[in-house]
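Appendix B, record 7
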Amino acid sequence: MTVDIIAIFLFAVAIFLGWRAGAVSQVGRVAAAVLAVVGAPYGAVMVRDIMFADTELSRPVVEATSLFVAGILIYVAVALTGWLIVRAMHATSEHLTLLDKLGGGTIGAIKGTLLIYFVLTVFALLQVPAEKLDPSNAMGLRGGHATEFVIEHNILAPWQLPELSELHTALKVRYYADELDRERVLHDHPRAADFLRKDAIAMLTDDPALMQAVVDDYYPVTLADPRVRAALSDDKITQTLSSIDWESLLKELMSPVHS
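Structure tokens (predicted):
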């Protein structure tokens, strides 16, 4: 519940800040940052010719300083232009001002949602350690609606934890081969079968509770399991794991059987 309250508070703050800044101002700052990064190499040529025509500084210092100064100048110029546009809008029409603020609130809500979701994906991975630190959940750090939603819809986990995600898929192959009585599919993929017979992997597949967490893609449980961490710390295991197309094998297992 505590996490839910914090998430709601941060979401409200993001909307408020977006409302205050306005849409044009926020878009202007993003555009300024993008143009500064993209335009700095081109602007650096002019900066170098003007500021360092007769310098005795080393080449790396000149190049780095030119890039930095060009980026700052571009950012300030674009941001100032955006600020002037906002001022002109506010002076011209209250209707445009209201639309700008509504747009700013919407952008703030989107930014807040993305930021909160990202933070919660990280926090969700700490649920098991949090249970050990606070068994009674006195601080309310576990079981919140926001955290549970992210755990169930964690689209970032495969990107944040690619090896763990791949191990999940490999273990699902073992699980569904047994559940669907399709062991013969593994016979056609001897390297995958050999991998799943390894002691470090077999001890995982022999644990029903852990396998249920794998099937549910409940990353907090699998990441906290020392056996999983030990397996992912073994270079030979991770090399073999990454060399097999587990996704295709899982699809083959799950495909309908034609008699």
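Remarks on this record: The radius of gyration is 27 Å. The chain has two domains: 1-133, 155-254.
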